[in-house]
Amino acid sequence: MADLRFDGRVVVVTGAGAGLGKAYALLFASRGAKVVVNDLGGGRHGDGSSSKAADAVVDEIKRNGGTAVADYNSVVDGEKIIKTALDNFGRVDILINNAGILRDKSFAKITDQDWDLVHSVHLKGSFKTTQAAFPVFKKQNYGRIIMTASNSGLYGNFGQANYSSAKLGLVGLANTVAIEGRKNNIFCNVIVPTAASRLTEDILPPDLYAELKPELIAPVVAYLCHESCQENGSIIESAAGWAGRCTIVRANGSLLRRRPEDDVSIENVRDNWSIIRDISNAQRLESIQDATGALMSSLDGLRSGTDGVGGEESDVFQFCNKDTILYALGVGASVTAENELKYLYENSEDFSVLPTYYIMPAMQVMFTSSAVSRAVPGKEIGLEQVLHGEHYIEMVGEVPPQDGKLVSKFRISEVLDKGSGAAIVCDIDTFDQNGNLVARNQCVTFAVGAGKFGGPRTGTKAVPCQPKPSRNPDATLSQKTSVDQAALYRLSGDVNPLHIDPNMALMAGHKTPILHGLCSLGFSVRLVLSAFAGHDTSLFKAVKARFVKPVIPGETLKVDMWREGNRIFFETSVVESNQVVIAGAYVDLKSVKAALPSSPKSNMSNLKSDAIFEFIVDQVKQDPGKAKAIGGVFLYNITKDGKQAKQWTMDLKNAKVFEGKPDGKPNTTLTVSDEDFLLLAEGKLNPQQAFMKGKLKVTGNIMLAQKLAPLLKTNAAKL
Length: 719
Ligand SMILES: *[C@@H]1O[C@H](CO)[C@@H](O)[C@H](O)[C@H]1NC(C)=O
Ligand SMILES: *[C@@H]1O[C@H](CO)[C@@H](O)[C@H](O)[C@H]1NC(C)=O
Ligand SMILES: *[C@@H]1O[C@H](CO)[C@@H](O)[C@H](O)[C@H]1NC(C)=O
Ligand SMILES: *[C@@H]1O[C@H](CO)[C@@H](O)[C@H](O)[C@H]1NC(C)=O
Ligand SMILES: *[C@@H]1O[C@H](CO)[C@@H](O)[C@H](O)[C@H]1NC(C)=O
Ligand SMILES: *[C@@H]1O[C@H](CO)[C@@H](O)[C@H](O)[C@H]1NC(C)=O
Ligand SMILES: *[C@@H]1O[C@H](CO)[C@@H](O)[C@H](O)[C@H]1NC(C)=O
What we know:
Largest sheet: 10 strands, antiparallel
Oligomer: single chain
CATH class of the largest domain: Alpha Beta
Number of strands: 25
Main location: other
Number of domains: 3
Protein name: Peroxisomal multifunctional enzyme type 2
Number of helices: 24
Keywords: Fatty acid metabolism, Isomerase, Lipid metabolism, Lyase, Oxidoreductase, Peroxisome
Subcellular location: Peroxisome
InterPro entries: HotDog_dom_sf, KR_dom, MaoC-like_dom, MFE-2_N, NAD(P)-bd_dom_sf, Peroxisomal_Beta-Oxidation, Sc_DH/Rdtase_CS, SCP2_sterol-bd_dom
CATH architecture of the largest domain: Roll
Bound molecules: 2-acetamido-2-deoxy-beta-D-glucopyranose
């Protein structure tokens, strides 16, 4: 990269007789600039008037082949300094307001004179000089201005009340000059140096003082003044060969009242104080417009009220690995299932959170809100009246946070009058800590008996359900829930006693506690991801589902799936009762990923026998003794269209049933078509007849095969 040069530029440096100012002057001159070296002369208290300091710097610049002129005016007469530049060089491009004096005393002892002097030199001097240069900059449509502030202004410093107030005053001056100058390519920035100079030499410890070389700061200031630098309105702190931007941030803050008609009490302020001062979610606001805008959006929750449609409430949801793992267990993920360790072990390489987990923050804000209970005008809706009717969740952006804090904003979008009840459409947007939208949830709840209030019957806000295709499913996966499924799932946050307390369940008209609809949904989506996304959660986009009937913990869920492009339609039913429990449902994927062909469970071709084998798996798990009594190792060779489609091993000796071949040689191999296997299991096809007709081929120990019948029959009865 070429050197940054200042050829043809005219630079005015105030207070350039020594220290930082001198370092600036020498550096600019060495890079081709013509420099006005302003210095009043004098000692640390700036009250002498010798011209020697400025002259010495000019001489040094000239000796090095540069161009410079001395100026001895006080910065309070800023226009005279600018005139020196115009008289000698015909222009001015860069103004470094560096001149300063110190008058340290404790606040109580400051005299008016000391106050005025300090403010004159620092604040008024910078103002006067900048104001004189500004019209010149404007005319040439170019200018770079530096104000010099101080740590004692940003942070305060004992004994420097007059100095620190003047120095922070310069930050305010620079902020406004930056705004007023920008359309004319005039940029104004603040440097906060800690440099060894006449001003600091007897204030700092000697070893630190030695590192505070002005030469280590000067390049930062020079860069800020180069035409290629677009920085404007910034505060840059620099010392000892380090530099960094300093900024003022604002906490997210807290609302001090809930409704516009509420007052704010001193106690409201006290009770919210820890949130008011918490800067962990602080933001830098770039302008007064941004700051006002941010305030307005903080007030959003207030303005819209919380009754009926349109009210918005928000809640913070905190979660960690343990929570997402507990959830995964709650929706049936298992270490024994292919590819599911990633949901259950935080150290696995591709640790993942099931996408339906992000329904939890939405449910939390809904539970904590009382808005649903007030959604229907004139009716108070009780928890026992409310049914979760439909749910939609859509993930936004790439990978959502896997732990930490999420903020959910909840509002009621629509309340429909369905006669027998009210359908309440709730939209919940969930954001990460940086305010980025992570997920959109929509929950349609049905309030039984809350209808006939004269509201609209149909609405526009709810994401519609979709009918399943009329052909046979492209894939089917089944999984038995555990009798303790609801007891496990509720630990993820839905603690409605209906799902655990037998008495509550009876009162609600159920024989036993029922499984959460969202738990069945979690099962279903996980199985869809297994069949069509290779458990790659990043492929998940959205799911919509309608809850039709309850599931009893312990029942087997069967998910039929149909693929159309990247949309997987699905329907979930309970195998034992043959009842549909989730309908009108689909999962949208970003793309479909067939599971890895090498893995034994990856062949997701739709075989009817799979469900039966899943049964046998459960059967054998529940009663291993019965399996062991039969003994032997059976290989099932399931065919489809005359070709081998899948193999299942029933290792009854060890009470293990799994997809694929056994380790050693099986005692008996049975070859049967998928369809005939189903007929056999249902008892519609007699094994002997099947054998005679060649529909069932048995090799190895044929006698042993006959012992299998009871195992198959039990399942047939259950189907
Ligand atoms: C501020 O005021 C005190 C007391 O009047 C004075 O001694 C001190 O020099 C002033 N500070 C600066 C930076 O001039
Ligand atoms: C400074 O100028 C730049 C370039 O025009 C502009 O983007 C920026 O907003 C300005 N900053 C301020 C604080 O006005
Ligand atoms: C903050 O103030 C609001 C309004 O008074 C109150 O409802 C809320 O509980 C307060 N927050 C905390 C954390 O006390
Ligand atoms: C920010 O403040 C608003 C109220 O002013 C509150 O609703 C929201 O939850 C807060 N956000 C965070 C991340 O704390
Ligand atoms: C199955 O075969 C193994 C040898 O491969 C044999 O040891 C075992 O006794 C057989 N089991 C039965 C039940 O026939
Ligand atoms: C499975 O059945 C197919 C088709 O009948 C046959 O080609 C294959 O050899 C059988 N496999 C075994 C292990 O018996
Ligand atoms: C699944 O098995 C069937 C039958 O053997 C085969 O035609 C199909 O290609 C396999 N699919 C995959 C994804 O391996």
